[in-house]
Amino acid sequence: MPLQKERTRIIYETCLGKSVRAYQWQELKNQLVNARLPLTIDNLRFVAKCKRVAPRKAIASHVLNLVVESATDLNGSVKGAVIKDYIYKKCPSLSKHKFYRAFRSMDISYRNDGTYSIAELGEVLYKLFA
Prior knowledge:
65% of the residues lie in helices and 5% in strands. The protein is mostly helical. The longest helix is centred in the middle third of the chain and has 14 residues, at 57-70.
């Protein structure tokens, strides 16, 4: 259920572990609107977790887009095939070597049927797009 306006920023700052400026809060709200996600506790926790893993705005929005497009539960994990399809849709010229190297650099072997946590997904996207 959507939260009251005055509580949402406090909840997000608590999840993130630090205060945010007005423009950062506005950017976050715009990201959620663009990703068609309402301001709920689960969504705010998810975004805060993404920001802690990969604080860059572009990385967080890639994660948000992937979650929305794949209809993945925000508290769960993402299938390898979904990650691969999404990444090659966003960047069709990406080499297979670079894709697999992003997983190997984290000591993770990539499998289409494997599941990856949001933290792992954030790291992979950071290595590929940062």
